[in-house]
Every structure is written in structure tokens, then in C-alpha cells.
Specification:
Length: about 130
């Protein structure tokens, strides 16, 4: 079965006709190509657009504001230290999060949120050391 037959089969299974069916997708080149074949109206998804907007804003503020950039670097370094030092992470009320390469802004938010939740306990642990 070729791509055209597969697309036709999908459309027919949902009783859709070609050319008048708006479809929400991401920006994947495979999605763009598939809907160019059928001339469907392809609308970018709101979640995808929101993610791109948030990522761009975070990156621009980080690039233009050295204090914000230093703050972010400090948080990343602190989280790295806690993760690499035995016995700290397990004592915190919320483990320090991070590492979401496809959604860096969400990763930053998770790091800040978990650090904010654990800051008091982390201060106690680090003072003892």
C-alpha cells in the first residue's frame, strides 16, 4: 500500500472528504508533507505554539539579562552538585528535577519549582557539610 492509499483509507474510515478537513498537527516535516499531498488545511497545534513561544522568551531573556542567566546557571550547577553528591537528594522533600531536552523551558521550570520546594531542607543539609 502506498502513502496515497494509506491516507485515503484513513480519511474514508472517518467519513472525511479531501480538501475541506482542517487538521491540527505539529511542525513535523512528515506531517507537513502528508497534508500537502491531500491539500488539507493543516493548523499548528496550540500546545506546540505555546512551547515554542515560551522557549523563545526564556532564551531571549536569558541572553539579554546577565543576572537572569547567572541565576539559571547557578541553579543548574546546584542541581548538578546535589545529584552527584551522595545522600543529599534522598533527604529533600522534592527531588531536584531537570533534563527535558525537547522542552528546555519546562525543564527550567521544573528545576526552579523543585529547588524552591526543597530550599529550606537543602540549606540545612549544606550548612551541616
Amino acid at each position: 500500500m502506498n502513502i496515497w492509499q494509506e491516507i485515503t483509507s484513513i480519511f474514508e474510515s472517518f467519513n472525511l472528504s479531501f480538501g475541506d478537513t482542517p487538521i491540527v498537527t505539529d511542525q513535523g516535516s512528515n506531517m507537513i508533507s502528508a497534508f500537502n499531498i491531500t491539500q488539507e488545511t493543516r493548523l499548528p497545534g496550540m500546545a506546540h505554539r505555546s512551547n515554542i513561544t515560551s522557549k523563545m522568551v526564556w532564551s531571549r531573556v536569558n541572553a539579554k539579562n546577565p543576572i537572569f542567566a547567572a541565576f539559571n546557571l547557578t541553579i543548574r550547577e546546584l542541581c548538578k552538585f546535589v545529584k552527584q553528591t551522595n545522600g543529599i537528594q534522598e533527604k529533600l522533600p522534592k527531588t531536584l528535577k531537570g533534563g527535558c531536552s525537547t522542552r528546555p523551558w519546562r525543564s527550567y521550570f521544573n528545576i526552579h519549582d523543585s529547588l524552591n520546594t526543597s530550599m529550606e531542607q537543602l540549606n540545612i543539609i549544606l550548612r551541616e557539610r
